[in-house]
Amino acid sequence: MRTDTGQIVHLADYRPTDFVLERVDLTFELDPTNTKVDARLIFHRREGVDLSAPLVLDGDELALSGLLFDQKDVPASQYDATPESLIIRDLPAEAPFEITITTHINPEANTQLMGLYRTNGIYCTQCEAEGFRRITYFPDRPDVLAPYTITIIGDKAANPVMLSNGNFLGGAGYDEGRAFAAWFDPHPKPSYLFALVAGDLAVVEDTFVTMSEREVTLKIYVEHGNESRTAYAMDALKRSMKWDEERFGREYDLDIFMIVAVSDFNMGAMENKGLNVFNDKYVLADPETATDQDYANIEAIIAHEYFHNWTGNRITCRDWFQLCLKEGLTVYRDHEFSADQRSRPVKRIAEVRHLRSDQFPEDGGPLAHPVRPTTYREINNFYTTTVYQKGSEVTGMIATLLGMDDFKAGMDLYFERHDGQAVTVEDYVKCFEDVSGRDLAQFSLWYSQAGTPLVNVSTEYDQTSATFKLSLEQMVPATPGQPDKQPMHIPLSFALILDNGAIADATSVKGGEVTGDVLHLTDRRQTFTFTGIASRPVLSLNRSFSAPVNIAFTQTPADLAHIARHDTDLFSRWQALTDLAIPNLTKAARDAREGHEVTCDPALIAALLEAAGDDTLEPAFRAQVLALPSEADIGRELGGNNDPEAIHTGRNAVLKLIADAGEDLFKRLFSDMKADSAYSPDAESAGKRALKAAALTYLAYAENSPQRAAEAFGAADNMTELSQALTLLAHRFPEASETTGALASFLTRFDANPLVIDKWFSLQATMPGEDALARVKALIDHPRYNAGNPNRVRALVGMYAFSNPTGFNRRDGEGYRFLAGQILEIDPKNPQLAARILTSMRSWRSLEPTRADQARDALMTIERSPSLSTDVRDIVERMLK
Ligand code: PHE
Ligand code: ZN
After folding, report:
1. Which residues are catalytic?
2. Distance from the CA of 128 to the center of ligand 1, in angstroms?
3. Residue whose CA is closest, atom 2 of ligand 1?
4. How far, in Å, CA of 487 to CA of 506, rounded?
5. What is the sign, positive or negative, of the torsion defined by CA atoms of 252, 226, 131, 69?
6. Is the N end or the C end of the chain the one with fewer CB atoms within 10 Å?
7. Is the ipTM here above 0.95?
C-alpha cells in the first residue's frame, strides 16, 4: 500500500505537459505473478519548451527493469527511476524520439484492484483515475491522448480470450503453448481509458446496425455458465445505441463493442474505449436471481458506460478537476434514457430521492465540495454523488434555462467543436452561451459553489387587484473552505393552481425573468408579481425538481392536498404528499423520544390513501407515494441532535396508523396487483410488483403477523417478490420461526450464487435494532463472506453502516468501533473501498451528543493509525475538521 504522501493538487496549477505523446505501443507477456510490460512511447518536445526540461513520467509501486532511447540503452546518468516516477534528461529539441520502458508487475498480488489485477483467474485492468501508472511509467493524465497498439502474449490454454481496446488486428499461436492477440485503437485516448482482459471467458454475441448502416459486433464476456444471464444487458445495450443516435445524433465509431463482467470491481463499471468492464452485478440477470431494481440498474449502467463513448471518450477531461464534465453529463444522459424507456415522473421521483438521501447530506456535511472542486489530495475520493448526481442536475438546469431546442443545439456544438479534445467546464458552458446568446456566468456558480441552496418562500394574494405576489429569498450555506456565497441563478418551474384544479395563466408578471413555466431567481431577494389572477391560487414550486435546492415554504395541509390532487406534474404531486408527511413524521419522532403517544393528521392519511387507491395513476407512482420519507430523510428534516431510535419508533407508529386506516385498500391492492402472466422486468410490471409489495408491507403492520409475508415468500416465482417478502419478514418479525426458516431456505437455494447471497447479507445487515451488530459480526465469519471482494464487503459492512440507522448508531458506540476496526482491516488491501465505506459516517455531527461523542472517538482511532492510505486519511481528516 502507498501510505499518505500528503500532496495536494490544485486546479490553478494546471499546465500542459512539456512533451507531446504521439503513439503508444504496449506488449504484455502475461504471467499471474510476473507479467512483463514493454511500453514503446513516441514523444516530441512541445514547441517552445526549454531544452533543459526533462521528461517526467508517473509510476505507482513500479520497478524499472529496462530503458531504451531509440532502441539503445540509456546511461544511468541520464535518468532517475523511483517507484513513483521516471525522469529522463537530455532529450532532443524537436525531433520525435522513442522511449521503451520495461516493467514487471504482479497481478495476483494486486488487491487494490487498480492497474492490472486478477479476478477469479481472469486478468483485468482498471485505469481510471490513476491506475495506468501501476502498469508502466507514463504521462498518466487525461490530457495526454494517443492511439494505442496492444500486443498480448499469454498461455494459450489459460487465455483463450485476450482483449484490448479498439479493433482486433489478428492473433495466432506465438510459440509452444503460447498465443498472441493484437489490437489497435485509432481514436486517440488518455491512459485512463486503456483496458486489457484475458482469460477463459464465455462470450455471447449480437450485432447492431448503426444509423449510417455500419454493422457493429457486440460481445458480452462472462464466466462460463453465466451466458444465459446476459440477455437483458445485451438488449439494454442495443436500446442505448439506438437512443443515442436518435436523441443526440451520436453514432458508435468502432467495428466492435465489448463488455466484460468481472466479480471483483471497486465501482459499478468502467467505460474503457470499446471494452467496457463491468461489476458482474450490473450485467447478470434472470428472473430467478435479479430484482426489478437490479434490472433497472443494469439498464441504466449499460447505457451510462455506452454514452461515455461520446461524453468522456471522444471528448474527455483536461484534468481530473473537470470530472463532472464527463460524469455529470453522462448521468444526465442515462437519466434521460431511463426516463424515455420507463416512466419519466417515476424516474424523476427516484432520482430526487437519491439526490436527497446521498447528495444533500454530502453537500451539508464535512465532505462538501463544489461540483468542480479546486483542490484534491486523492482523486479517488472525488467520484462522489456531488460530481455525479449534482453534476447531472446542473446540466439538467442548463436544459431548463435554455429550453430543449437551444440545449440540443449547444450539445451539437459541443460535439462538433471539441471532438478529439480534452476540455474544461468553461469550454462546455461556452457552447451553450454561443448558441443561446445567454450569459451563463452567474449560472456557472453551480460548478464552483458547494452547498445546497435554501429558498425561502412567502406569498400574498390580493383579491381586489387580482394580484399574486411571490417573494423568494435564497441562501447558500457555508461549506468547508467557502464561508461566503454569492446568489445563484436558480431556475424554478412553477404553476399557480386554481380552485377548480386548472392552472392559471401566469404570463403577466413583473419582478424578474420568467420563461415558459420557469422563474429565474437571480437575486438574493426577489418578488415576482402576477396580475390577472382571479382567485387565490395554490403555488406549486420547483416542479419536476427543476433546481437541486431546499424549499422552505409553509403551505397548509389543504393546499398541499390540492397540489397532490391537481398538479399536472406527477413529480409535484408526490412532492406535495411528501411535504404533507414530513411534519407528521418529525413530530412523531419527537413524541416517541419524549415517550408521548404518536399521532398522525387524518388529512395525511386521507391524501395518501386517495393517491394509493387511484387506479387512474400508474402503480409505480402509487408505490412511491406509499414509500414515505425514510428514517434518514426524517433525520435530515430534524436537522440535528438526532436520536435514530426515536425516529424509527415514531415512523413505525405512523406507518401503523396508515396501515390500520387503509387495511381494506391494501388488501384490495395486494390482490389486484397479482401478475397475470410470467415474470417480465418491464417498467409496468415492475410498478405493479412495487405497489403489491407496498401493500404487503402495510398489511404486515395492520395484521401484525408474519403469516401473509411468509405465504408471499412461499408463493414468489421471481427474485423481486422473494427478496421483498424475506426482507419484510426479517425486518418486521425477526424472532418469528417463519423468518428463521425463510432465511435458511434462501441460503440453501442460492448458495452457489454470490450476487444473490449478497442480498441475503444485506437484508440481515439492515435489520433494525441493536442486535444487528451481533448478526453482522457472525456473518463476517460466514463461509460465503469474502473480505477481499468489494461486492461482499459493501453488501454486509457497507449496508450496515450506510443503511441501518438504528443498528449502526447504537448508543454505546459499538457500531462505530466495529466500523473503525473494519476500515483499518480493509485499508491495507483496498484503500478505495475503505475510504468509500468510511463516508457512511459523514453526518456524525447531526447525532445527539452521546452518539456524536462515540462517533468522534471511533473516527479518532482511525486517524491515529500510523499507516493509513491517502484515501482514508483524506476522508477521516476532512470528517474531523
Ligand atoms: N468512470 C466510471 C463511470 O462512472 C466510474 C469509475 C471510476 C470506475 C473509477 C472505476 C474507477 O462510469
Ligand atoms: Zn461515468
Report:
1. 305
2. 7
3. 270
4. 25
5. negative
6. C
7. yes
* Dist CA 318 CA 369 (whole Å): 19
Pocket-testing residue among 270, 273, 322, ligand 1, by greatest number of atoms within 8 A of Cβ: 270
State the ligand closest to the CA atom of 333.
Answer: 2
Given a contact cutoff of 8 angstroms between Cβ atoms, the answer to whether 70 and 98 are in contact is yes
Reply yes or no on whether the pLDDT at 439 is more than 80. Answer: yes
Condensed to tens digits (0 to 9), the pLDDT of residues 18-32 reads 999 999 999 999 999
- The residue type of 520 is H
Query: Grid coordinates 424549499 are at which residue?
Result: 551
**3-class SS of residue 609:** helix
pLDDT band at residue 6 using 50, 70 and 90 as cut-offs: low
CA distance 871 to 861: 16
The whole-angstrom separation of Cα 101 and Cα 808 is 49
Q: Which residues have their alpha-adjacent CB atom under 5 A from ion ligand 2?
A: 327, 330
Mean pLDDT of 45-68: 98
Rounded distance, CA 812 to CA 67, Å? 58
pLDDT in tens, 201-245: 999 999 999 999 999 999 999 999 999 999 999 999 999 999 999
- How high is the pLDDT of residue 20? 98
> Ligand 1: which residues within 6 Å by Cβ?
126, 128, 266-267, 269-271, 304-305, 308, 327, 383
pLDDT band, very low/low/confident/very high, at 4 (cuts 50, 70, 90)? low
Predicted TM-score of the model (pTM):
0.99
Question: Would you say how long the chain is, in residues?
Answer: 881
Cα(383) to centroid of ligand 1, in Å? 8
- Cell numbers of 829, please? 488491501
Q: Considering only CA atoms, which residue is closest to atom 3 of ligand 1?
A: 270
Q: What is the pLDDT of residue 342?
A: 98
* C-alpha dist (Å) from residue 120 to 267, 756, 760: 17, 18, 22
Pairwise CA distance, residues 112 & 829, whole Å: 6
| 741-785 residue pLDDT tens | 999 999 999 999 999 999 999 999 999 999 999 999 999 999 999
Please enumerate, as own/partner, the contacts of 820-827 that have beta carbons within 8 Å and a separation of 24 or more: 820/858, 820/859, 820/861, 820/862, 822/797, 823/862, 823/872, 824/862, 824/865, 825/787, 826/787, 826/793, 826/797, 827/1, 827/868, 827/869, 827/871, 827/872
> Do residues 808 and 815 touch, judged by C-beta distance below 8 A?
yes
594 burial via Cβ count (<10 Å: 0-12, 13-18, 19+):
exposed
Task: Average the pLDDT over 43-62 and give the result.
Answer: 98
Q: Tell me the three cell numbers of residue 59.
A: 509510476
Atom of ligand 1 nearest to the CA of 265: 10
Q: What average pLDDT is seen over the chain?
A: 98
CA of 835 to the centre of ligand 2 (A): 19
Contact (Cβ atoms closer than 8 angstroms) between residue 444 and residue 398: no
DSSP secondary structure string, 798-809? IHHHHH-HHHHS
Residue with cell 459499478: 268
What would you report as the CA-atom Rg of the chain, rounded to the nearest whole angstrom?
Answer: 28
Centre of ligand 2 to C-alpha 129, Å, is 12
- The per-residue pLDDT for 676 is 84
Please tell me whether the peptide bond between 606 and the residue prior to it is cis, using omega within 30 degrees of 0. no
CA atoms of 42 and 640, how far apart (whole Å): 58
Q: Return the residue matching grid coordinates 406527477.
A: 570
Quick one: which atom of ligand 1 is closest to the CA of 131? 11
- 675 pLDDT band, cuts 50/70/90, is confident
Within 8 A by CB and 6+ apart from 766, the residues are 727, 731, 772, 799, 800, 803, 804, 807
The rounded Å distance from CA 267 to ligand 1 centre is: 6
Quick one: which atom of ligand 1 is closest to the CA of 312? 1
Round to whole Å and give the CA distance between 833 and 836. Answer: 5
In order of 732, 736, 872, the CA distances from 656 in angstroms are 12, 19, 42
Nearest-atom number in ligand 1 for the CA of 266 is 10
